[in-house]
Structures are given as C-alpha cells and as structure tokens.
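Pair request: fold both.
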Amino acid sequence: MVCARFYQPRQFDQTLLHRCVAAHWPSVRAACAAHGRPLPSFVRREFDAYLRCGDQREGFLRIHCAGCGHDRMVPFSCKGRGFCPSCGGRRMEEGDAWLCERVLPSVSLRQWVLSLPKVLRYLLAYDGKLCRAVAKAATQEVIRYQRLRARRALGLDSTRQAHTGAMVAVQRFGSALNLNIHFHALVLDGVFVVDAFGNPAFMELAPSSLEDLHRVAGRIAEAVLALLRRRGIWLDDLDESEDPVAQRSESLAGMAKASISGTLVFHSAGVKPVRLQDARVWVPAQAERAGKALGFVLDAEVRVSADTIRPERSEGRIGPHRRSRRRPRRGEARSAESTAFTARGYAGICCAHPWQRDGSTKPWTASTPSS
C-alpha cells in the first residue's frame, strides 16, 4: 500500500467531463420529466453517483500509515460501470491483471474486431441477452475458421485435434464517444495440438488473407441473421410499435438513435456535431484490410507476439492490447479545453488519432451555445 503521506486525491470536480455533467444533467433530467418521458432509473443512478464520486462530503475512509503516522481521508467512489473515468479505469486494470495472470496463455494473440450494422447496434444496446448471443455466434464462426485452417495447414485428421480459444469484450462506444456496439476478441493466433506424449504444443497460423476475412464476415452475417430470425427479429422489417427500447423509455430510445446516427439531441436536435480538421492534407489509408458482408465489418490486423507478452507479465504491467479491450465507455479520448470555444458554450473532445472518415482531430459538440 502507498504511504498515506504521498497519496494525493484526484480533483474530481476539475475535469471538463464533470463540469459538463454537473452543469447540464439537472436540466436534461428535468426536460425529459417535463415532457412525460423520464429517463430510466439506472441512467439517473449512474449520473447521480458519478457526480458524488470522489467527493469527501459524500463520505470517506480514514487511513493511517503505521510507518510515518500520517493520516489521509480517502473519499468513497461510485464504482460505476458507465462512464466514470476513475472507476472505469480501476476496473479495467483489475480485470486485465486477472486475465494476464490467470486466464490468457503466453502465446501469440490476435485481435479480431467485429463492427455491426447500425440497426443491429440499436437492438443490442439495451438487450444484454441478445448481445451475448450475437457475440457467441460471431466468436464461434471465428473459432471454426481457425480450426479449419489448422487442419489444412498442419495436416490434421480432424478439426477436433485443433484446440483454440478466445476472450470477447463488448465495446459500447466508438471513437467519437457515440453509441456503437461492437466486439473486440483476443483469439489465440494459432491452435494447440496434443502430441504423441499427451502434451499440448502451440502451432501458430499465418495471417488471414483479405479474401478469407470477407468469407468469415459473410459466415458471421449468416449466423447472426439466422439467430435473429429464430427469435422473430427481422432487420429489414422492424416494427417501431414493437421497439423494446422505446417501450422501456422513449427518451432513452431517442438518445440512442441520435447517438448511433451521430446527431445532437437537445438544442440543435438532428444537427451533426461540428468537427475541426487539421490544416494539413489528410490522405486516408488506401489499402483494404477488413472483411465486409451485409454491413458486418471484420478486422484482424493487430497481433500481439508472445515475446511482447512475457516481459509485461514479469514486470507486472498490463499489455496495451488487453487493456484497451476492457476500456471504460468514456474510453481514452482526452477532454480538451479551449477558452475560445468553452466561452461560447462548446465542449470539445480531442481524438487520439485522426478520424478515418475525414481526418478530423477535434469533433466539437455544442452544449449551450450563446446564440
């Protein structure tokens, strides 16, 4: 444990995110209630708890260092699973430490990322059971593909001789902090084969070709659509009167649709956020690297070698690719403050990398414009 004398509590109320939520959350909540469309209780609890997180006035724990005799007051945290950067980051680090030390083997891994059609993102946003079923169906197709490749490449008699595994995380946000349900999976970049002495040996596989990614994306699309049909869901013929999200909360449904489509909800409703582009000429990547089929996009470019994983374990650090898979919903997008913009009621989010669509680095959203 860190000595209490050196512990410095975070300034919870000094971040742009906290100031924006504290300034606008009461009015948003009141506006929804005034129109007869109150937000669900879990949304209200999440925001209220976030505003109290780290505030000593809401309760604290007094710790005493037996070594130096120093006392320190540690405020309670909200332990939220939504968008609190502090609690989400702590949960991320604890979860990844468990994965690195107890679950994932010391072999090469590959990150598979599956993006979904927008209408499916909306359906999965607040249906946990359906979301898990879709993730399972997609992962099974990837594992089936890996085992078939292993049988051909290694000359196995059956795919049952090839053993592999995956860890899947549901990511709820996109690069612009919009509602974007997609899946990140860490899949063994190969298979385990049991030798004649009964010992498992890991055999790496070659990277997948673009043609193979298109084929796997097609198989995933077929599997997911078949799953939805078995449950009576048809993406091309959705009845808005049977919208499960709208039945639960019309306000939540409207906000979810706006977030997925990338438009504003209040004030200038339906308007796209303002984005700032770099003055330099932005040239998008020309090489196609993802498989596509029926709105499903499958990417498997990122690979983590075993040589990279082992030093991180021995030094007690968490690998960056594993850490990003369990990132809190606010992500690592850095809140940016600019006097020229915040004075006019604008709140900005600075992207870590240029946006793939147009090279934007700062998508600014209007909160309370003066005009």
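--- second member of the pair ---
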Amino acid sequence: MKHGVTGWETHKCRCETCNAAIVEKRKKNKASHAKWMAKNPEYTKKYAAANRDAFKKYKSDWASRHPEKWRIMHREADWRRSGIKMNNEEYISLLNQQDYRCAVCGRELAEDKSKMNGNNVVAHVDHVHKTGKVRGLLCGSCNRAAGLLMDSASRAEKMAVYLGQHHGGTSNV
C-alpha cells in the first residue's frame, strides 16, 4: 500500500492523514472549479447545452444512488427559492421540538412524502415572507389558512368568532 497523496488512481492508503489530505485537495479543486465557472458563464452555458443529455443522465444516476441526499438537497433548494432561512438539521430539530405535530391543530406530521404512513401529512414550513424567518411547522390545511388570512391574527380572531356564530362552534380537528 502506497502512503501519501500522489495521484487519484495510484493512491491506495486510507489512513487518517492521507484521507484528510484527499478531502482538502478535493475542496480546493471544487472551489477553484466554481470560481472558474463563475468567471466563464458563457462557456458553462454552452457546455451545459451541448451536453444536456449527459448531465441529465449523471443527475439521474446520482439521485438513484443517493436518494436521501437528493431529497434533502432539493428540500433545501426549494426553501432557498421561497426565501425560507432554514437547513435540514434545523428542520428535523423543529419537527422533534413540535413532536411531529402541526403547531396549530396538532395533526401528525411526516418529514416528507417518503415518510408518510396514512396517518400523517407532510410538514409545511410556516415563515414570515418579508424576512424568511421560520415560525413553525404546520399541516397543509393550517398553512393555507394562515396564508389566506394574510398572516393576520385579527383576521383569524374574526374568523373564529364568525365560525362560532354560524356553525355552532363545532370542530373537525
């Protein structure tokens, strides 16, 4: 077994020192590649367009080999696009804090569609749209209701009074 960092093909040693050196080298390569791509956006776009099928196949193969990482990566990307300031670790922590229950109605929540069992629903991240600050995790119905009430506590109170007056105060929860 050869010790020390030489080439990727010839390197066989997996001791802690060598492994740390390999990880560091990969980080540097990845960082320099990202900088180069940022400086050369036209080339990157042309290359991606010319190799679209190969990129799709690579992504598909990677996703099938790493389904959990793929789910987490896409979940976090969806949050970023929506302006939600949260990562997966914070999400799991919040689910645990709320005992996997909706913060409003107490309905049982699932981490994602793959974890649904018929008794639970997917958790939705409730957040302040202006700041991205997370308020809690809700079921889809409560999240939509909060949105339709324009996140207004006074509207919610008026709705509760209205429903109590016109529907006898019955509850489906």
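Observation on the second member. The chain has a mean pLDDT of 86.
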